[in-house]
Design goal:
alpha/beta, Fumarate Reductase Iron-sulfur Protein, Chain B, domain 2, three-stranded parallel β-sheet, 3 domains, Ubiquitin-like (UB roll)
Length: about 350
Amino acid sequence: MTFENQFELKIRAFFFNANTDYLPYYKNFSFILDKRDDLKLKQILPMIKEKNPSFSYPEKELIFRVNNLVVTGEEKLSAIIDRLGTELVIDPVLEYRSDNGLVINNHDFMHQFRRVLGHYASKEDLEYYLKLYPIHYASETFNYDREYIGDAILILAHKMIKDGNPHKEQILQAINGEFDGILCCEYENNLFDGVDYTDTINELKSMVTMPPLNNDICENIIKSIMPKKSKSYDIDTLENEAVALYIGDKTDIKINGIDLVEFDMSYKLAGQTILSSNPTLAYKKAGKMLLDALDNGATVLAFAKDKDLEIFSSIHVDVEKTVGRDIELKLISLAKLKELTQEAVEV
């Protein structure tokens, strides 16, 4: 750049109009901006629309995704760039709910409130729930179950119980649906800048009584506690192998001496915390993670946690059956990876 305070912002923006388009598509944009302008993220959207009038976004309740993190329009662009860089991908908060670009069908937000907790909620509870709008659409489980009630309902339920709502048992029963309730929740904080509710969700789960299980779920639970046909690998070299590392949380692990295959789900939970309560969904999530590594070119997948290696090795065959694909990945421990690379691992 020729001017010290200027920089180039590159944006890949989502386009889709349910009335005219069969599939979504993306267009690329480039802007020369001044660091001193201190823009908010919402100020970038009209700049895109000026270049392409087909680009659409809501004037109210503005939430969307930037590099797969949920943001509001009030985020400072400088904070986004500091964390994500100057090449950004803009998507609707949930692609399958897009009506027109970033404009989504958000009727489910209030529908879930009325259906699940509305009978037991006060005006103050409703006001609290409305503030959880971004959290609802940041729910990780929507990627696997579109009928899920949403993380915001669970967070509200916890608040109502903690506030002494006299309908505690009815609230717990209401959120305990076998196919759309708390048993489907493996919480991830997908907000760019927001409260982490991991402890809240875990505390709420501890209050819930498991519902009667249907035969399929019973069979899976029985299978989960019986010895399994695990896939195990004993490799003595990484020659001609492409290695990915599954971490499963936000821990930053650096490995010297090897270039790792990058994949999106490296830092995400993949069903291990819901394996006993919802094995069907757990297998789907595990399959997505393993295939993410495989389809990005990995032939070996190392696990930062020994427990995760044990879990995914034991369910590997079941996961393959669930996703309908062979997943030819060699699964190894981080200790084995260290041994094979002959390099120290810095945490």
